[in-house]
Specification:
- The chain is an alpha/beta fold.
- The chain is built from ten helices and 15 strands.
- Strands 1, 2, 3, 4, 5, 6, 7, 10, 11, 12, 13, 14 and 15 form a 13-stranded mixed beta sheet that branches. It has a two-stranded antiparallel sheet with strand order 8-9.
- Helix 2 runs parallel beside helix 7.
- The longest helix has 25 residues.
Length: about 350
Amino acid sequence: MTHAATRITPKVFIVSMFTAEGTAWYGLPEFNLLEQNITVPGFSPLFPQAHCTLDGSICHLVTGEGEINAASTMTALVYSPIFNLTQTYFFVAGVGGISPKRGTLGSATFARFAVHVGLQYEFDAREKPADWPTGYVPQGSYAPNQYPLTLYGTEVYELNDDLRQAVIRMAQTATLLDDPLVQEYRANYASNPTFAPGAASPSVVACDTATSDTFWTGALLAEAFENTTTLFTNGSAVYCTTQQEDNATLAVLLRGAVSGLVDFARVIVMRTGSNFDRQYDGQTAVANRFAMLSAGFALSVQNILLAGLPVVTGIVSGWDATFREGVKPSHYVGDIYASLGGTPDFGPMSAK
């Protein structure tokens, strides 16, 4: 184990959430993340170290799963005296559930919006009013599909779409893997034209992500949270993936940006599809949750690296020409409070 003697200034900091996502980045011919192994106070007891190349240009950490672990680890990173993160690109690269309306198992998705769909009242479906389409009601509201009247500030984060488009072009240079078992399973979605993307081969997709510590599955819950994603962004977001950490990670990075420690316009969120968020026609929600666990998960982890490697190396190789100065966003970037200035294009004041 080594400790940094001077502040490390990464060009790219890769953020994983658990072991399999993290180890995908080790042992590469392109760069060696294990040349510096730095214990950072406040990191997860399971993942106490950041790992960096010898020159510090590329670093990596594992937050631990769920919102609490993500927020705790990222806070420890942002406020650590070990790192200078003012010009760092943060690359959140993990797996997640995916809607067959937008992609399939193994697809690599890049988000502009991250929506905290868990900020709602929850009524058991057996006790909700008969005319409600779901038992989820936004905080402070009185029925589903009313914009939340109580704002926590973490409902929506909008990322730099100009940067997103640049890294999508990088990721599209990769050939994503597929798997015969996955091919056979996803063919079940071909009978419904709405699910055509779910029946197709893995690809790189521009679509948005929903955060909740609750791992939901099934058509009814997927539709409910898809509607929440649309509602909270005034129709701008395209619901696509599900995960447990991104709004927590982004909350920390935004507060770090307010403090001048990071640049929020340099954040990238990529999620690869590990499981479908809803069943195919004729299948039960329970069967969907527990089907294809091994093959879909393994494929999604493999494609993290395949889609993500061109992004990391592209930023480093293009540093002097493009990325040192940053990719200037042509639209609003930030949270629902406009903490970084500007005018949000989502939220109650933007309701259409």
